[in-house]
């Protein structure tokens, strides 16, 4: 199985609270793996949630969802979550997007990413464009846009967020780690 979807991982009230937690004035322009900025590849504002403080409940929900999904769909060797939760905002005014990329990269943390989970924090009718697409080789898969739904996929898979043409899209991303793929 290449992807796994979880409908209604978070309620509407919970998605609003996650966005509120991310809007603490620490948003910054998102970069690529290694922190390099390249606006032709990625345009988004990001913030990081304190997964052991006010947003601990968010991380607890993600960990539980990943455990269930990994057992049912992937069966990867997942050992930990070394990165905080990332909230990204893709805005029409900035032509927010993230071109084709994988989540595995150089560095001591990124090379151990095994699964990526992306949760939809915006109502689908509040924006146009902004779809999360996952490359399946000869086709691409568009993740569900249902508020609170989550999509899991192997971190080595190419994926993108197409440009937002109207409104603003928020998403929550977490990476699950384990021994390097062999």
TrEMBL record:
Keywords: Dioxygenase, Iron, Metal-binding, Oxidoreductase, Vitamin C
Required cofactor names: L-ascorbate
Pfam families linked: 2OG-FeII_Oxy_3
Superkingdom of the source species: Bacteria
InterPro entries hit by this protein: Oxoglu/Fe-dep_dioxygenase_dom (IPR005123), Pro_4_hyd_alph (IPR006620), Pro_4_hyd_alph_FE2OG_OXY (IPR044862)
Transmembrane helix found in the keyword field: no
Record-annotated Fe2OG dioxygenase domain positions: 81-178
GO molecular function: dioxygenase activity; iron ion binding; L-ascorbic acid binding; oxidoreductase activity, acting on paired donors, with incorporation or reduction of molecular oxygen
Protein's name in the database: PKHD-type hydroxylase
């Amino acid at each position: 199985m290449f992807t796994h979807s979880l409908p209604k991982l978070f309620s509407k009230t919970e998605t609003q609270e996650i966005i509120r937690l991310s809007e603490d004035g620490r948003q910054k322009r998102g970069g690529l793996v290694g922190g390099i900025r390249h606006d032709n590849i990625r345009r988004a504002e990001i913030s990081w949630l304190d997964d052991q403080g006010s947003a601990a409940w968010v991380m607890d929900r993600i960990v539980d969802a990943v455990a269930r999904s990994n057992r049912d769909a992937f069966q990867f060797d997942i050992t930990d979550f070394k990165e905080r939760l990332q909230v990204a905002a893709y805005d029409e005014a900035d032509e927010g997007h993230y071109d084709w990329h994988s989540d595995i990269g150089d560095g001591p943390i990124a090379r151990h990413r095994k699964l990526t989970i992306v949760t939809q924090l915006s109502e689908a009718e509040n924006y146009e464009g902004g779809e999360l697409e996952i490359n399946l080789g000869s086709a691409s898969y568009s993740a569900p846009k249902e508020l609170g739904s989550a999509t899991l996929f192997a971190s080595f898979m190419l994926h993108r967020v197409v440009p937002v043409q109207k409104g603003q899209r928020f998403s929550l991303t977490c990476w699950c780690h384990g021994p390097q793929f062999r």
